[in-house]
Amino acid sequence: MNAPTPVHRGRFAPSPTGPLHFGSLVAAAGSFLEARKRGGEWHLRIEDVDAPRCSQAAADEILRTLEACGFAWDGEVVWQSRRGDAYAAALERLKAEGRVFACTCTRRELADSAIAPDGATIYPGTCRQGLAAGRPERAWRLRVGDAHVSFDDAIQGHIDSDLAGEAGDFILLRADGLFAYQLAVVVDDAESAITHVVRGADLLASTARQIFLQQCLGLPTPGYAHLPVAVNTEGEKLSKQTRATPVDGVRPGPALFAALEFLGQRPPAELSCAVPAELWAWAMRHWRLDRVSRGPACPAVTGGIIAP
Ligand code: GLU
Ligand code: ZN
Q: How many domains, the chain?
């Protein structure tokens, strides 16, 4: 007899641009606990599609740190750098259906374009009706037309998005020949049959684009929950750029404790120096997504987790 399909399949999808820092630990812990609490699976995908920004060493370090933190994932790790054929096939389908167009615009030509709330350039539509003669195609973009996308985020609430105003025709294949994050994520989440995406709210602005792309490709839309973004005392998102301290892979307990606190879970103070197994045992019993705030928030400075 076949095992019943699990109702919940979550994932964590770090980009190996540097070591695992507190913000990614929060995303890992939130997605892991939500999946396990519901008796679901939790998958791991290394998002190394943007090869120039990623490294194998960073990926190895992230995997080691996740193991040291006591995360256990289901199945094989998925590597985006090995999935180019799947992305190419998706793009070909969209080409065949006339949903994408080639774009010759250079960065400089787009420099005067409007800026989306997430800082991205909104494409002005220059090449939508066809390429100017003699100009080489550089990128492929998805036509968004007048599409509106709305969804209910389990943490951030109801989101309405006007794609033309917030993103414009967005890139699926970049001028440098690399597939764009938006395409890779959508193809991979579907391939892994992910039912619930739990990730940082810095990606909230991408979600409408991803849902639209799922619709274009006839793929199911998972549920979404966007966790608060961890910021430093200056209000900047913790990242490699803001020199967030990497999670200590030798003694990860305090960082995990801080991540649970950050996620609104109120672990008892006596666990502040506990090892991961004890923290997970507690968290598995007590995890509640409805305790997670919308953020952004500055995590408590515990054990030197956050860079000064
Ligand atoms: N790779 C992305 C990041 O590290 C996350 C993508 C996702 O969770 O959809 O920010
Ligand atoms: Zn163009």
A: 1
